[in-house]
Amino acid sequence: MHKMQSKELAVMAKRMYDNVPFYREKFKEIGFEPGDIKSIDQLKDLPFTTKNDLRDNYPFGLFTTPQSNIARIHASSGTTGKPTVVGYTHADLEIWAEVVARSLSMAGIHSGDTIQIAYGYGPFTGGLGLHYGAEKIGATVIPISVGNTKKQLQFMTDFNATVLACTPSYAAHLGESIRSNGISEKDIKLRIGVFGAEPWTNELRCQIEQLIKIKAYDIYGLSEVIGPGVSMECPCHCGNHIFEDHFIPEIINPETLELLPDGEIGELVFTTVSKVAMPLLRYRTRDLTRLCREKCDCGRTLVRMEKCLGRSDDMLIIRGVNIFPSQVESVLMEMSETTPHYQIIVRRENNLDTLEILVEIDEKSWSDSIRELEGIRRRIDQNIKSMLGISAKIRLVEPNSIERWEGKAKRVIDQRK
Ligand SMILES: [Zn+2]
Q1: Each residue of 173-209: pLDDT tens digit?
Q2: CA 381, 168, 288 angle in degrees (round to 5)?
Q3: From the CB of residue 368, how many other CB atoms can be counted at a distance below 10 Å?
Q4: Cα–ligand 1 centroid distance for 174 (angstroms)
Q5: Rounded distance, CA 134 to CA 110, Å?
Q6: For residue 153, what pLDDT is reported?
Q7: How far apart are CA 159 and CA 166, in angstroms?
Q8: The pLDDT value given to residue 76
Q9: How much distance in Å is there from the Cα of 264 to the middle of ligand 1?
């Protein structure tokens, strides 16, 4: 692996230097010629790439090859400004299908399965990314895309879907809809869920697995690196294996940019050594996690990344305390009275940050008795306070009152911005 990564890094650096002015300048700044790179161990001395660099070079400034060699273009809509554009050659698309095929196989999915892909098809990489990997393993594909819950349920039952691929928040919504539409358990053939595109906790996994009676797996990826299929959870559920023959991970301290040793939490950085159209050098993902290189119980030796704590962009600083939405989620999902839907609202009142959490209560726990509800509210209040270290205003809301998202859930409303 080390030998292969070293060889590929040298080839990639030369391709970048020869074809992309942005990278050529960066190499020159540190006095590096592509020929200087002999080993992957030198990666730590090379410059980083950020999302802003992608925006600054919009649309094709980081491509190493002319548009005539580009087979497909994907783009993710930024909340502000220009979208992030990524390009693929035919060879890149082949790598992508390969890593997604590996991911699906890792979860035990095979040619006999029928995969309902409820990720968005379009410029977003979720739908088409899963699609070609699923075709590659010979599975039956239902390219239903996102939304239209009624049709999702109809196809799921009539076409005997055995695998569901979508965001975990939408999976939770579909699970509830199966129940509320009175669909019998014997009409649901689902056995595996492949969920990603947003950070989610193990506690939410338990809730989804109870709702739909499936085994849920985390698929990780980001469009800048390739799309879904950068890493995947194995049946041991002890982190995601990274396909490090294509995507080389590092963990850095996001403040000092220093490389951190394995086992320490920091920002995940990827170098894509095999991609041709738009390789990335030390791309800062903003995702916070840690790496483990010990052999997994499943037998694989590929490096593992722990389930992401969240994106550093998602981190809320409230009254000086760092808070991740995932911490709130893990408290709420451990309680039997809550549904997988919640919302976090941050405000600034009289120069003081306030945190309010809307918690949706499930049908059977929703009560007319104020005393019962107050008991639930108080327990949530205490658990949140001990997890976060600060108190939050907890507001219980009725079943089905929080908006359901078909793609990525918008769980945080920061009104300070
Ligand atoms: Zn494993």
Answers
A1: 999 999 999 999 999 999 999 999 888 999 999 999 9
A2: 70
A3: 6
A4: 28
A5: 9
A6: 97
A7: 17
A8: 85
A9: 20
Give the DSSP letter of residue 71: -
Which pLDDT tens digit goes with each residue over 251-281?
999 989 999 999 999 999 999 999 999 999 9
Longest pairwise C-alpha distance within the chain? 74
Distance CA(163)–CA(152), nearest Å, equals 12
| C-alpha of residue 233 to centroid of ligand 1, in Å | 7
Query: How many A from CA of 307 to the centre of ligand 1?
Result: 13
Nearest to 272 by CA among 311, 233, 234, 225: 225
Closest CA to 163 of 208, 130, 116, 127: 116
The pTM for the full model equals 0.89
**SS3 string of 246-306?**
CEEEEEECCCCCCECCCCCCEEEEEEECCCCCCCCCCEEEEEEECEECCCCCCCCCCCEEC
Would the CA dihedral through 125, 128, 134, 136 be positive or negative? negative
Query: For residue 12, which phi and psi values (nearest 5 degrees)?
Result: -65, -45
For residue 198, report the distance from its CA to the centre of ligand 1, in Å: 21
The token pair at 136 is: 């590659």
Number of H helices, E strands in the chain: 10, 21
Question: What distance in angstroms lies between residue 302's CA and the mean position of ligand 1's atoms?
Answer: 8
Token pair for 365? 């726990």
Calpha distance 240→268 (Å, rounded): 13
Residue 301 dihedral angles phi and psi, to the nearest 5°: -105, 0
pLDDT (tens digit per residue) in 123-144: 999 999 999 999 999 999 999 9
d(CA 205, ligand 1 centre) in Å = 18
Residues 43 and 282: beta-carbon distance below 8 Å? yes
Which residues have CB under 8 Å from 405's CB, separation 6+? 167, 169, 170, 173
Task: Give dist(CA 259, CA 382) in Å, integer.
Answer: 37
Q: Which two tokens stand for residue 89?
A: 């050659």
The amino acid sitting at 70 is: I
